[in-house]
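User: Second chain of the day. Same drill as before.
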Amino acid sequence: MLIPLGTDRPSTRRTVVTYVYAAICVAAFAAQRFAGGMQGLDPITDALILRPGDSPWWSYVTYAILHGGFMHLLGNMVFLLSFGPAVEDRFGRVGFSLFLVGGAVVAGLAHWLSSGAPVVGASGAISGITGAFLILFPRTRVRVLWFFILITIITPPAWFLIGLAIAKDLFLEFGGSGGNVAHAAHLGGYAYGAGLALGLLASGVLKREPYDLLSMMKQRARRRQFRAAADGAAPARVAADRGRLSPTEARIEQHAPDRAEVIVALNDGREDDAVRAYRALLSVAGDVPRAVTLSPKAQLAIGNVLMQRGDHAAAATAYDRFLDAYQADPEAPSVRLLLGLVLARYLNDPIRAKRELAEAKLRVRGERERALADELLLELG
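Assistant: Same format as last time:
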């Protein structure tokens, strides 16, 4: 048995809609038990259930706040609270609210096309969330409680865990052993969430990130170029041009394949290899800032990976290189805040930490980031 506990995707804003939806489901379940007992249905609950072909239009939304039992509710809430905050963070609160309603409707219609049985449950709408998560954060690690002989915590990538859930629903829906679970509603939700997320990324409504599925697909040509550089194209060019370059420029060019190796590893999701390659690059060329500076997205990514792994000195260096090279980048204020956090809490450099945090506070846009800056400045006195 696999039970998701959360992801390693950090949020930039406070989670609200996910918690409100969870609270509504819990309150509705409590009202069901109170009004109808454990066996019967009260008239209000009965009116909210989706009965395909024999229900008012609102039941295509209201069924998604009802549940058939405590374990049904618990299972749905676990998935909602694990994957909902990250998708809400990307869509925004209003967008995520509309997305949830759309997911419930699409999942209800998918169930209507496959079955005439009454249905309740948030799982169709939550499948929409996981479908979107699959597109937006396919390589994000999910903390999972694993029951198999031993009880342990594992951290598979999101594509594996969600792909396993989709495969299970496909098998049970078309294998004829689905029981009383609305697998078609789940599949409709997955398709809705994944399709909408792809459309929003492709149209530019959602800002692309280095590790969303569409960006990974678009970067295949770039990865081939980086591999060519890593295989020796760049050293050949350096040898030809060395006479025309200054010593610093020559060293920057000399380490182009090393930078390419880090970027290729990041793009491929091989974080261990990326960290190893970047640490090696710092050890041989750290005295030449441009020689250890990657593209903006890759530079921020390697800093965050190093931060997550507790290598705070290397993370601070990576954030420094980002700020030196990309001061006008929209992410620069947030990077400065991260640098201030590292300096304040891990590297014991309060003077510089105060300077970075004070500047970050003036430039960050989110209330949560400003609050973090205030908290850190208060800690520093």
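DSSP finds 18 helices and three strands in the chain.

User: Great, on to the next one.
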